[in-house]
Amino acid sequence: DQQVKQNSPSLSVQEGRISILNCDYTNSMFDYFLWYKKYPAEGPTFLISISSIKDKNEDGRFTVFLNKSAKHLSLHIVPSQPGDSAVYFCAARDSGNTPLVFGKGTRLSVIA
Amino acid sequence: DTGVSQDPRHKITKRGQNVTFRCDPISEHNRLYWYRQTLGQGPEFLTYFQNEAQLEKSRLLSDRFSAERPKGSFSTLEIQRTEQGDSAMYLCASSLPRTGNLQTNGYTFGSGTRLTVV
Rounded to whole angstroms, how far apart are CA atoms A32 and A52? Predict the structure, then answer.
């Protein structure tokens, strides 16, 4: 059973426009959500996170929105830049010590 | 400290051979995780340690897999009698324990070891 779902395997956006990456989860015990970015031949790197006590967290060009009732979160990148082209993973965990659970990822291509 | 180091970066082995990977975490991180990533999938949890204690193992970790963290510092992941289905990127990550509701930056990952079983 997939607890974290990223239903769009890929997304293509023009440089300067907004990129919106979506993530759904099924486990209502999840209370902390993270986005990771991964370039080829490298490990994932942390991008931004949000606690379930918030509905929005912003860091520069990156904003994560959380809708707990819908069990949905999204990552907004604006403006998108060619260097943002990578695979983005959504991850989640509960309040205990369980390890992070990852989605399958969305490959973002930002076209100049 | 330059982050999480994994060695080797690439490993090609014949089916049936044993392989061992090493991970050196960030020194002040007492938690260490092993994940596996195959094409088109996200990282899948294998096992994790707090200090030298192995606290959880995924059902993905068959009895051909064994992980150790003998002194609570570096860790090794061994795969015995490798199969073609073991071909994947093996990722190691480290972190501090989660404390209350403090936001953390999650895990710091290494660059991974890409295993190809031929």
Answer: 6
* Distant-in-sequence contacts of B95-98, Cβ < 8 A, 24+ apart: B95/B29, B95/B31, B95/B33, B96/B28, B96/B29, B96/B30, B96/B31, B97/A97, B97/B30, B97/B31, B97/B50, B98/A32, B98/A93, B98/A97
**Distance, in angstroms, between B64 CA and closest chain A CA?**
22
Distances (CA, A) of B29 to A100, B86, B97: 16, 28, 8
| pLDDT tens digits along B16-57 | 999 999 999 999 899 999 999 999 899 999 999 999 999 999
pLDDT in tens, A33-47: 999 999 988 999 999
Q: Check CB contact of B42 with chain A, cutoff 8 Å.
A: yes
Rounded to 10 degrees, what is the CA torsion of B96, B97, B103, B109? 40
